[in-house]
Structure formats: C-alpha cells, structure tokens
Amino acid sequence: MLESPLSMIPFRFRHPFLWIGLLVVSLPLPAAPPSNDRCNNAAVLFLDSLPLQEVGSTLEAGDHGRSVGCPAQAGGKDVVYQFSLTQTTSLSISTDGSVFDTVLSVWSACSNGNLSGEVGCNDDFDGISSRVDLYQAPPGTYYILLDGFDGSQSGTFVLTLSPPSPPPNDACSGAQPILLNSTVYGTTLGADNSQQQFCGAKLTNGPEVFYTFTSPDGADVRVDTLGSDLDTVITFRQVSCVGSVLACNDDFGGTKQSQITIGGLLPDFTYYIQVDSDESEAGTFRLNLNEVQPPPANDSCAAAQLAAAPSEQFGSTLFAENDSSSPTHGGAGPDVVFRITLAQTTHLVLDTLGSEFDTVLYIRSGSCSGAEIGGNDDALGRRTSRVVLSSLSAGDYFVFVDGKSVAERGNFRLSIGVGTPPPNDSCESATQIQVPSVQTGSIRFAQDNTNVFESGCESTGLDVVFRFTLDSPRQLLFSTLGSEYDTVLYLLPDDCGSGEVLACNDDGAGAFGVASFIDDFRTNPLPQGSYRLFLDSNEVSDGNYTLQVLDLSTPTPVPSRTPTPSTSATPTRSSTRTRTNSATVTETGTLSHTATVTSTPTSTPTLGMTPTPSRTQSATQTRTPTFSRTSTPTASPQPTVTETTSVTATPSATSNGSRTHTPSASLTRTRTFTPTSSFTGNPTATVTQTQSATSEPSATSTPTPSSENSPTVTFTQSATGEPTFTPTSEETVTVTPDLSESPTHTASTTESETRAVTETPTETPPVSPTETTQPTETSVFPSETSTATGPPSPDLNGDHRVGPADLLLFLAEWKAPAGGQTSRADFNEDGAVDEADLQVLALAWQRVQQSR
User: What global pTM score does this model have?
Assistant: First the structure.
C-alpha cells in the first residue's frame, strides 16, 4: 500500500489553523488593565458609611501619575479613586495591609486624565504603607492616587477611608519611643490640644502628640520635621512632659516645618519631644532624629570630589552647608560639588533621578566661579533634575547638587552619562523614513523638546521625531511594541510650528501594555502629504525603542504578460594535474556486484494549480570487475585530463494553457592518461574491468486541484534514457632486470556517454483564463477555502480571519529570538520575524477588508 502524499507533509502545515490555535491557547493572554487606571475613569467611592475599605490590584495598571510632594521613582503602577464631600469633613485615608510599598496622594482636580492640585501625600507611614489625613476638608470632589514606589512595587492593596480616631501617643503618658538616627511618621488628626505653651511669640494651641528619646552617649542631636506637609512646632523637654524646655522651633529657614540642634545631652537620660500643629491644621508629619555629623568632604567647591564620566555618584546633603546657588534655577538648600575633567570633546547627560529630595542641578565651567553653562530644577515632571550638555570641550567642569529649599536635603544619586544625542532629537532634524519600515534607537541622550496633552495622551519626557511622505492615501498603523520604556506616539502635520495633533496614543490595549498603538488610519486612509511622527516618553522613562510603521493599503497591481524564455549554454572545462606516489601492493581477487533499485514515490498536494505527479522508476545495474595484480611500483605519473561538456536547451512557453518543452542534451568526455614510471622487480599485472548500466524510467503525473474556478490541468511526461557506459582499462608492464631500467607504462581510458531525453508536457484547462491585474503577492498565503500546504497562515489566533488580534500576536513576536524553534509568525519561513512577514500580514488584512 502506497503512503499517502498528505502524510509526507509536516502536520503543522497540513492543519495551519489547528497548530496556530494550539500555540495561541498555550500562551497566557495579557490581562486587561483596571478600569480605574486613570483619573477620568476613577472608581467612585461613596462615604455613606465609614470606615470604607476597598481591595484591588495594580499588577496590570499603567504608570499615569505621581505625587509632587512625596518621593517616588519612575515606573510605579497606579490606580485612581474618586469621592465627594458635601460638608466640611476630617478623613483618614490609608493603605495599611497592602503587600507592596505604596505612595498615597490626594488631588482636587482631573483634566484629560491628568491630576492637578495636590492636597496632601505620604510615602511611608508605617513601614511600606501610606496614610494621608484630611483635616476639615471643604466640600468638593477629591481624587486618590494609589501609586507604587517604583516599577517593581505593585500587587494587591487595601485602601481604607475612616473617620479620625485619637492616635496612641495623643497623651504624654503614651509617648512613643524614637531611636537615634531614625525617621518616624505620625499624625495629629484626632489628637487633643492638651498642652499649650509659647514658642517665641507663638502659642502652640493645636493638637499635639508626644515622643520619648534616651541619649545613648550624650551625643549632639538634631531633630526636625523637614519633609512634612504639616505646619509644625516642636518642643524638646527633659525629664518629663512638664519638665523644663531645652529648645523649641516654629518655622525653620522660612519653611513651615521645624528643626532643633542641641548638644550637651546627658548619657542614658530621657528626653521628650512634643510635636504640635497649628490650631487650624492637623495631619501627618515626618519626624527625623539624627546624631550631628561633620559636613561631607565635598561640601564646598574648593574641595570638589573628582568624578569620572561616565559614572554614578551617591552621597548626602543632610549635614552639608548652603554654600552656593544658581542665579537661574535657585538652590537655597545645602549643596555638594563634583569636578569632571574631560580630555576631549564630550557630550554629557547629568541627572539626579532617584534622589530623596527636591534637587537643583547646575554646572560651571573652568572654576567654581566660572560661567554657568547649564542647569535644571524640575525635569520631566519630577522634583529631580536633568541637564544635557552637548559638545563640551576638554577641560574642568564643576557640578553642583543643591536643594530647592532649606528643608530639601538628604540622600541623592548623581548620574553622569556620556553619549551622543540622536540625530532626530528635534522636530527640525526629523529622520526621513520609508513606509512601511521599522526604526530602532535610544532616547537616552535626547532632549524634551515637544509635549502633547491630548485626551488619553500625556508626554512630558524625552522625544525623537520621524518624517515621512505619502504619494497617495494609505492605511497605516503605528506601534512601539518592544520598546523598553513607557512610550507616547503622536502624529502632526509636516510643520514644526503647528500644534495640530492628527492622532495620538499613550498605552495601547491588551498585549501592548505601556507601548503605544495608533490605528486611526486603518480604515480611513491617511491622506497624501508629508507628516511628522513624534516618539515621546511618559515623564522620566527612557531607553531603547522599536517603532513599527505598517502599510495595510492595497499592493501595487502587476499587469499580465506572456513570457518566452530561451536559454543556450555551452560550457568547456579542461584541467591538467600531476601526481606522484609510491606504493607496494599485492592483491588477487574477483569481485562481482549486482544492484537493483526500485522507488515508487507518489505525492498528491491539493493547492490551486499544483499538479499531482505519479512516477515509477526502475534501475538495474550490474558491475563485474576482475583483476589480478602483483606489483611493487615506484611511480611518477603525469596525467592529463581534458573534459568537454556541451549542453543546449531551448524551452518555449505561452500563456494560452498549452506548453511544449523539448530539451536536448549531449555530453562527451575524453580523458587521456600517460604516466611515466620507474619500477624495481619483475611484476606483471593485468587488469580488465567491464561495467554496464541500463535505466528505463517512466513517469506519469496527474494533478487534482481543490480550489473552485481553477482550470483543470493534464500533464503527461514520458522519458526514455538508454545510457551505455563501457570503460575499458588495459595495463601492460614490462620489466627487464637490470640496474638501469627503462620501463614503459602505457594506459588509456575512453569514456563515452550519450543521453537523449524528450519531454512533452501538455496543460489543457477547461476554460481559457485571462490574466488581469492582480497583486503579485497572491500566492503568499491561501484563501480561506483552500487547504494550505505552504507557509504558516497570517491568521495567528485561529478565528479564520485576519484582524487586530493577529496583529497583536504578531507584534508580540516581533524580532524575538525563536530559540531554535519555528515561530508561528514567520510567514515566509526565513528563520526570522521581520519586515517581510509584516507585508504578508498587511496584505492578508487588506483582503479581509475588501471581502466585506
């Protein structure tokens, strides 16, 4: 029984929709982002009954907002809640019980998905949880932004809204212990005003709480509430709550917070710290207690710390002095200085991303009093700073890390990067690209030149710009899937002065995550003309990007034509070789070998006009060599080989359904071998070899098309070959025993081979098809009614159509390593998922649109 030709085709090609479906099912589908991912879709909380508790997750959320007053790193995922107050109310909002490090903030307005008017914030109130207290908040609508501290902090959270309750350290008898060199968070919301006193001319008549501290070794200490939102007054007492006041402070350095530095403390002595708030305020605060330290070594410019470029520098301004400030960007807080020495022209990017406080960054050239060549206060919507310096010449540069105000100080990170700005860093220098195409690069050293705040889009980060021109309306898609950062895409006319946004996207849905996806022109073509495409970022994020521009428009048609090929070739090859060998052989034997080979393959593919061949071939070969040889030769042959090959083929073809192909070929090879040998001994050797081969193949193939409206093809082929191959080898050696021998060795070989092949195929369709203008890509993939035997289908999700879901799955594998396995998105099977596969998918998509 013959094996079915269908079984010879790999299973995944016989059932494309099945194997694609199995692959897709095996992949986890991306979860949808929470519905309250942005403030314009904030989940509404009703405060009819308090306390109120909400449990949720930020795992699939995006990063759309960040507190202004509380530190948080880039990439934190967030969700938004909304509530309304009908009367003046005090309220406590907490994330206690959440499994990740939260940052909580309350806002008073939302516009186009963006929050504004921060009312209060908190990073850590009790370990990783946060708490914001609203004291007598007026009626109105408020928004709660529940954020992660950074991109790694997300998961399940617990959000609790409750009425005020007395804190545990409301009375002095319940004073909370605080350790040296530590920070604690507290609240005065719900506390009593049990102990009033004057601090200077101000009466501390607001709610207060108490802390207790034991000096371990009589060190000098500094206690402050810097970094708090609350207007505080602190009092430092000894022995008891009513003991003598050693020091107090209301407003330090022009801030609303307080700071006391006190020395001469007794070892193992107990002291009390009272934290008051203004009578019209109550809420959370931050209390810092530190042992006084000497200032950092690079506190002054004269002692600037040498820093390499590139490098990362870490330090603290906690005990630094306020020695300098920028005339342009300010800097009233403590500062430290670094010196960078450049040996050649260099491009620098400096930033303080990751610092604990509101920084100011500025750079001076040549000396501490040199010209300020760059600076920044708040970059990319953050309290940290970023400065890009292009083409700095060799020399010394002084970098100042400053605090925005007296209260802004603490640990910082200074990044010094070296690189080259992208050539398309601005609108005017946009890179011209082709459509379709794929662009890759980095925005690490780009500037923030253009921003967009359209509905659903927000970009305040680094950007690069591309320009393209369309000679006709085109159906286009734009995607940044595969980029390393949170991208924003927007399309503008080819006018850098125009503020008109034709289309934009921040986060595409589903598998796109924080990648962007513009499909506004998938069904409504983008008109003819020139455009500029901005690839922007969301706030501080940066890195490598991948931009895909897909063209779904109808491919250019190719008119029908009738080819008539003619080929003639006559190659000639000759070679001469010389070989020297020495051998001693003694062998006698007879070898008879008979081989018979029969193969009957049958294959029946069913696709379009592909024929179904059936071929039978029989070959019989008999070889009977006889030899007897005894020799001890020392030979130095010098053979000469000459080969001449002549091939002539004249095919002809027409497009009327009938084709005649009559090739003829002849092959003649002549080889002459004349060696000269020297022998010692008396050998006599005779070799006779005879070989014959006969092959009489015949082949007949009949196709069976499966598609409707396809012509019927009959293909008959006959071939007769009767090659005759008779080599004759006669070798005669004569040796005369003498000290000087002159042997004569003559050998001749003649090979003659003649082949004649005649092929007469005939194709007879039942109708005479007329070829009209059709896309050349028609045969790239099968129609929906065909049984595919070729490359994988563009229908990646197995729903028997090509649509947006297939595009998402395709882009998910875009240029991803296959790991040695065939990718389902590699439509042309070239081992890579690339631009060629994009075109196959785009064409398939277009045909689905046309069939509707």
Answer: 0.55
